[in-house]
Amino acid sequence: MDELTGFVTEFGYVALILPFLAAAIAPLLTSVLKSHSTWLLALAPLGAFLIFFAGVGEVAEGTVHRFGFEWIPSFDVAFSFRLDGLSLVFALLVTGIGTLIILYAGGYMKGHKDQGRFYAFMLMFMGSMLGLVVADDLVTLFVYWELTSITSFLLIGFDHTRERARRGAVQALVITGGGGLALLAGFLAIRELTGLTSLSEILAAGDTLRDSPYYLPILLLVLAGAFTKSAQMPFHVWLPNAMEAPTPVSAYLHSATMVKAGVYLLLRMHPALGDTTAWMTILPAFGAVTLVVGALLAVRASDIKITLAYTTVASLGLLVMLIGVSSKTAIIGAVLYLIAHSFFKGGLFMVAGSVDHSAHTREIHRLGGLARHMPLTFVAAMLCALSMGGVTPFIGFLAKEEIYHALEYADAYHLAILAAAIVGNALMFAAAFIVALQPFVGTKPAHIDHPHESGFRVWFGPLVLGVMSLVGALYYGVYHALFSSPMASAAYGEAVEIDIGWIPHLNLAFALSCATLVLGVIIYLASTRLRQGLASLLAAIGWGPDVGFDQAMRGLIKLASGVTRIIQNGRLDYYMTTVMIVMVVALWGSMWWSGGFPQVPTIPALEVYEWIILGLIVFGIAAVVLAKNRLQAIVALGVQGYAVAFIFMLQGAPDLAFTQFMVETLSVVILALVMTRLKLQPSDHRPLAQKLPDATIAVLAGIGFGLFLLAVVQAPFDRTLSDFFERYSYAIAHGRNIVNVILVDFRGIDTMGEIGVVMTTGLAVLALIRIRVGRHGRQSVDPLERAP
């Protein structure tokens, strides 16, 4: 493959930034233009779509577009992007369906008071997902990965006044965020253990990761990120609860964006991590369970949005299962199904929103007879359902045929996966027509008043996606050449040619497809009884992952409260003792572990004035220990500081000595002021048994610091920093006082932070000394009254 510079490379940055720019102006634009802002905002994803579409021909010929720049060179992190068959198709889905969703949202949420905020969140989410699928550098990919979690949290919890919306948002953030941390650990492990920092390097490294002794932990960490993002059992619970978001969010999130991020990552990493025993065991196992259970829960649900949500769970399980099989045909089936799913699921979700918007309900048993009132929506629903059901001539049929062709082997491994695929596809066939057929046929219930089409922007999107599901299959030669074949080639790691068409061939795969349709019709006809039976079964089981999430969160809160009660119990003496013990362990433990105890020094020949200063230090220590009250101890505490200041002055550092004098003076004054304003005992009346442990800890800390400083002094002096500051203090900062230059220029931000800390401390002390505690425990803020 070649690396070329062209239109896509030059304008790739524009495509990536357009959704974020539109998000920035969306609230203002909507407040000015109201619903008309939809058309202008939709130009952002449309422009990005056209930029990426311009590269379809080159990518189909094998070109890989790469562009970016150095981001953090010292850590070998680049803001880099890669556009090949896999990332290009995802980018087209994100931007193309995103354009339709923005238009749909304009009609669906017309007049909503927070429509501008909704557009901003949606476009930020779109930009995050777009960056994720084209990112090349691992750190860049992770940044966009987490941005999708954050923006989806904002979208799911958009109606933040409802508790269920807030819970759904938190649940999605906790589960996908936790998986994101695992993915970050996996990426860091890849960088540190192999030196590979980008997807391009990983894909070019062949079996480097598979041959690594750390392959399994890396695989598990990557799968944790992918499984949580793409809602594999038991992490699936966040996805149905994300239905608390407005329907445009559901349609976009479930069709082309966040839920497919994990599948994208698995397809992208397949050439480097796939085709191993662990890969071919873990992925099919999780995928098959997710497929069957998700499809059963879809038929069990009575809310059409929840039904579609669980079919998304099932579809993601099917994709993960196929990627786990790892054969060329299985990867082709996964690619074909992924594209088909983006079309029919996005369309069906928009249909569900249109039905809800018109009939004011999403309950299956309360809907019917809408076809004559909403003919365009009904046509769109049937087109999408036929593709979802795998009926020819729709692209869903191409995917289903290729899936069965990939699994037509007689061994137990493939037979088990094939059985899961047949059962799951049949259940999803039934679910598709439960959503697309039942609300539109039969007699209209009396409670539905004046159902009608909701306007061009609402029915246009699902109708386009339904038509695309048909056109893609009818012109399968062009479809495969430009989209599915390049995508499968990038995912498989070798050139792949797809030629399956909509005309059936009399073979085993077609027979299995027909059996699936028959089983799906049977399930559809028995859906009411099956729904009741599954509801009774789940009620009898009771506990599930969703309940388990609430239990885990409550347990986490209780654990945090318990730890807080132990560690933060409100006693200052406890805090000080804990800090000192940790300090003693750190000092003595580190020196013992490293064998870093210093040699016993000889007593140097001191001058008389040096002995005097040393005597002052000893005198100050004795004065503090033997002081009769706390105020005397505070005053005596300043003696050591003044003695150290004298040492600085005698050693030729008058500015440092002056600073020490100021610090000691202020410390003594502030502590004395605080002591006079607090109601404390004038002296420490504790028994010796309580004083002795504190004294022991203090002595150990003092000796530990002394030994540590001796060890530092005895180590060879490294002049690297000294030489640096001597060389550049005047040349760069134009200052001859090196200490001042370090404080003001080289570590100016640190100094500013220290000043902020001192200021905050001063304000806290000021507030503290203004408090007067009365005889009955009441507090006043009279600064003129003294404590008794």
UniProtKB/TrEMBL annotation:
Keywords: Antiport, Cell membrane, Ion transport, Membrane, Transmembrane, Transmembrane helix, Transport
Boundaries of every MrpA C-terminal/MbhD domain copy: 616-679
Pfam families, per the entry: MbhD (PF13244), MbhE (PF20501), Proton_antipo_M (PF00361), Proton_antipo_N (PF00662)
Domain NADH:quinone oxidoreductase/Mrp antiporter transmembrane: 135-418
Record's bilayer topology term: Multi-pass membrane protein
Highest taxon above the source species: Bacteria
Protein name (Swiss-Prot/TrEMBL): Monovalent cation/H+ antiporter subunit A
Protein species of origin: Fulvimarina uroteuthidis
